[in-house]
């Protein structure tokens, strides 16, 4: 059961106590004013007289889960916040600035409290909600994990990242910077999809593109967003120590990291990051807000698939800060001739098994063209599932889409290809990567033979898994 401790019961503190009185869990108020304590007891509120600025006076045998520091005097609140973090370092601490707090006092509070709030009815409501919520420890843990990184943090997206991964990585770097840990948004591979390139360029996002053999010696910590395992859909060594994982894709097996937040029930990783930005009080600028909104829109197919209330609420919060004109420009990029060529080969090489379409497009120059082809082929009459694959640099890449079909593509691709490479995704949008092994030595005149071998081996596996 949640134990909430309130230190100091000024005007704001008393209002918070009133709100918390109806919540489940235990509540205790400590205040130096004996008459105020007596008044609280008359209201059936558990209260004790104590010096809230003295760690020894507020130390309790049972450690609180959530602490609200709510005196009217700013300096008293600062001293009480320092005292409670010393007495109960694992508690989630929300500190009220007090009345007339100076900038230096606010900054000092921000350095010790998990969250700092100012006066005002709207903020008061938010404080009561935050203090009452049982998952506030997650924010506390993320903040602590980021601050424990003794140096620069590398926030890795998956290879050839999509807008959700890009936006989530940039947002996490802002959160890390906000708690005093410098960070870079990093990725391997390339951003080749036309919309994704436009997205990065128009928003002027600062990303670090690393070579596969790049040294990570400049980084003291690693975070993963929109994927959960080093060496799976990124080019990190599989044994890389990971500090933070934030993702919305279902994971097979345990995830090894100091902080893990994986929520398959939400539509986008960007949605999770919006929550952390809000709860940690990180200011939203236009580029980050626009990026996160686009990440949610893309991963939920404009709020038409796997959408939750949390995704709608996050998008509504972002809309006030986002640049809608930039989004319109991002969504209308030029389409390359290579993309049209892959789509044409996808149509020409299609194999149908009922309403399920598979197509091998042969050698490709850009793996993102597979996703675009899979999307376009899904518009064919009578087709409910598409699976498009091609090969480059010794690897077979595949992209699958579903519409109104009784199939979970993420599970189907894992069943079909996990023993050969890596695969996964959502019920209606998934992908796979399969090393070609001995097939990559076939060149020139053997290209047709290679394509035939792949069609027999890969298409049949996919059809069997879908069935």
From TrEMBL:
<dbReference type="GO" id="GO:0006813">
    <property type="term" value="P:potassium ion transport"/>
</dbReference>
<dbReference type="InterPro" id="IPR051319">
    <property type="entry name" value="Oligoribo/pAp-PDE_c-di-AMP_PDE"/>
</dbReference>
<dbReference type="InterPro" id="IPR001667">
    <property type="entry name" value="DDH_dom"/>
</dbReference>
<feature type="domain" description="DDH">
    <location>
        <begin position="154"/>
        <end position="296"/>
    </location>
</feature>
<protein>
    <submittedName>
        <fullName>DHHA1 domain-containing protein</fullName>
    </submittedName>
</protein>
<dbReference type="InterPro" id="IPR038763">
    <property type="entry name" value="DHH_sf"/>
</dbReference>
<dbReference type="GO" id="GO:0003676">
    <property type="term" value="F:nucleic acid binding"/>
</dbReference>
<dbReference type="Pfam" id="PF02272">
    <property type="entry name" value="DHHA1"/>
</dbReference>
<dbReference type="Pfam" id="PF02254">
    <property type="entry name" value="TrkA_N"/>
</dbReference>
<dbReference type="InterPro" id="IPR036291">
    <property type="entry name" value="NAD(P)-bd_dom_sf"/>
</dbReference>
<feature type="domain" description="RCK N-terminal">
    <location>
        <begin position="5"/>
        <end position="95"/>
    </location>
</feature>
<feature type="domain" description="DHHA1">
    <location>
        <begin position="353"/>
        <end position="450"/>
    </location>
</feature>
<dbReference type="InterPro" id="IPR003148">
    <property type="entry name" value="RCK_N"/>
</dbReference>
<dbReference type="Pfam" id="PF01368">
    <property type="entry name" value="DHH"/>
</dbReference>
<dbReference type="InterPro" id="IPR003156">
    <property type="entry name" value="DHHA1_dom"/>
</dbReference>
């Amino acid at each position: 059961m949640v134990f909430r401790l309130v230190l100091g019961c000024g005007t704001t503190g008393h209002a918070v106590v009133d709100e918390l009185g109806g919540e489940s869990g235990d509540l205790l108020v400590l205040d130096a004013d004996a008459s105020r304590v007596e008044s609280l007891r008359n209201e059936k509120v558990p209260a004790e007289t104590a010096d809230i600025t003295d760690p020894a006076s507020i130390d309790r045998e049972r450690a609180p889960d959530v602490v609200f520091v709510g005196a009217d005097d700013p300096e008293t609140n600062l001293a009480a916040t320092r005292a409670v973090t010393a007495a109960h370092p694992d508690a989630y601490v929300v500190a009220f600035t007090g009345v007339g707090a100076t900038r230096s006092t606010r900054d000092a509070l921000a350095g010790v409290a998990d969250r700092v709030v100012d006066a005002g009815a709207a903020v008061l409501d938010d404080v009561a909600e935050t203090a009452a919520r049982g998952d506030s420890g997650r924010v506390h843990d993320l903040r602590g994990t980021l601050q424990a990184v003794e140096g620069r943090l590398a926030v890795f997206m998956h290879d050839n990242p999509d807008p959700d991964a890009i936006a989530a990585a940039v947002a996490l770097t802002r959160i890390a910077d906000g708690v005093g840990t410098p960070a870079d948004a990093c990725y391997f591979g390339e951003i080749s999809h036309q919309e994704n390139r436009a997205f990065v360029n128009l928003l002027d996002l600062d990303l670090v593109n690393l070579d596969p053999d790049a040294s990570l010696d400049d980084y003291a910590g690693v975070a993963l967003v929109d994927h959960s395992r080093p060496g799976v859909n990124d080019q990190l060594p599989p044994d890389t120590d990971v500090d933070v994982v934030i993702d919305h894709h279902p994971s097979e097996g345990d995830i090894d990291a100091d902080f893990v937040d994986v929520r398959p029930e939400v539509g986008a990783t960007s949605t999770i990051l919006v929550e952390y930005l809000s709860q940690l009080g990180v200011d939203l600028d236009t580029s980050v807000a626009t990026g996160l909104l686009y990440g949610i829109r893309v991963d939920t197919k404009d709020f038409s698939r796997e959408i939750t209330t949390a995704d709608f609420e996050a998008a509504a919060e972002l809309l006030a800060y986002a640049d809608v004109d930039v989004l319109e420009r991002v969504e209308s990029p030029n389409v390359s001739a290579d993309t049209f060529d892959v789509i044409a080969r996808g149509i020409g090489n299609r194999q149908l098994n009922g309403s399920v379409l598979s197509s091998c497009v042969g050698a490709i120059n850009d793996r993102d063209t597979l996703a675009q082809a899979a999307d376009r082929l899904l518009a064919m009459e009578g087709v409910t599932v598409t699976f498009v694959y091609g090969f480059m640099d010794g690897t077979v890449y595949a992209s699958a889409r579903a519409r109104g079909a009784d199939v979970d593509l993420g599970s189907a691709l894992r069943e079909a290809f996990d023993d050969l490479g890596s695969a996964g995704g959502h019920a209606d949008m998934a992908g796979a990567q399969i090393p070609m092994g001995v097939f990559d030595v076939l060149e020139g005149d053997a290209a047709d033979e290679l394509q035939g071998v792949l069609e027999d081996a890969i298409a049949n596996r996919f059809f069997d898994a879908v069935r």
